[in-house]
Request: fold
Amino acid sequence: EDLEKCTGVCARCPRTVCHNKTSAGASWYENTYDVVIIGAGVIGCAVARRLSQYNLKICVLEKAEDVAQGASKANSGIVHGGYDEKHGTLKSKLSSRGRSMFPQLNSELNFGFRACGSMVLAFNPEELETLHMIQENGRKNGVETFILSRAEALEKEPNINPEVFAALWCPKSGVTSPYEYTIALIENAVANGVEIKLEHEVTDISLASDGTYVLTTNKELIKSRYVVNCAGLYSDKIAAMVGSNYNIIPVKGEYIILNKVQGKLVKSVLFHVPTPKYGKGVLVSPTYWGNLLLGPTARNTTVPTNFTDNSEVLKYIIHTSRKLVPGFNAGQAVTSYAGLRAKLATGDWVIEESNLAKNFVNCVGIDSPGLTSSPAVAELVEKILVDAGMKLTPNVNFNPNRAPIIIDKREMSSEELESLGNIICRCEKVTESEIVAAIHRGIPVVSTDAVKKRTRAGMGPCQGSYCGPRVTKIISRETGLPLNRVGSKGPGTSILPHGGMILPEDRDMLSKL
Reply:
């Protein structure tokens, strides 16, 4: 071959060995992996952590500047019981298994999980019949639930709607912080040898003559024996690069978060009786850190909406939530957010080796309960890779443990808080040492949004107006980035009237809804 004709686009070159040291081929061997995982959401990070138990060269590619930037950041943070996924579906098999793995995972990774239980509220005899059907479906899925009378439901949750007729109680459901969980998974994976490349968008995938895959990214070429597609909302586009045909339907979910005073109104996750149109529908739930969560909507973004503007979305969420818990004060909102869920028309997930591309595993259409199921999905992906021919030998240096970033200060006295040192975020009592620790965990942290996900700095009532500039200075100091290159939070997805800033007139309007 005439090297003068080399364009450096190795994916299009028929040669298996490149001797052109002036081209992209110079780093070819350094960029060869056993497994490349596309997507650093909760599924991709769970797979990475699972595979880090073995002697494999693994790379995670993520197009965003941080992990957990898609649906893994903007969801309900609920670890579902597994009782309402239709028996026999992949969802039903993986959600129950995944839920059972959370206590052990939390003991190892310290991301925060609380088994607070969940309750589905029925308001008439017809809905009670549906509860019995859900209970039977749960029994088939291996999940124990209990039918509660009105009195029993009110005894557990005194602030629910007194018109409740009956309830389905699942004691093993829980809540977690979804982005902290995702970050914990990938931090532990990186500590065990996994590489992560942020801001690496996969634009093409081709097959080399030796049977390995060549992934073209916006920054470099990467070669791998096996590929796992965990690209979430874009998983159909990645699958199409190897000839597989799926159609992801983006479903938008919008939420409102109220302050921690409102969070004390309920102890467990509260659901409406599910319907074919809205599924689980709008819920009311305590968050892991003690706020009150209302939402989500479930809007198919490919069809016209019934809402004319965000004010109607707000009214819908608040009015629907009040059927479960009438007494909350919506004027105590802290923020609002929205996320897009990747849904397939079949309603179930695809997790399998492509029948068109050997050693290429697709994880497509993983919507709710994807967070709950993530450790079980990773377990299944491992099995698929082994069945495809991957040889696994244990990593004798594997360490399953990860120290927490956040010091839980909810029960601390003022004297104990003072002893922790410089408080940067007054709302959430986040210290400088916590922020510094978050920055030096093996994953580049280059924005205040990345620090917020790891430490909660900026998640309180002022939404970072006080601590934001201070966090920016710490990131600059610790990373060497110029101040003007430290990223801040993006445009946001709030449905509140003034976005991240809640004005007195906004609170007055919300309190009347």
Q: What stands out?
A: Residues 1-5, 7-12, 19-26 have pLDDT under 50 and may be disordered. The first strand starts at residue 32 and ends at 38. Residues 367 and 448 are 27 Å apart (CA to CA). DSSP finds 14 helices and 22 strands in the chain.
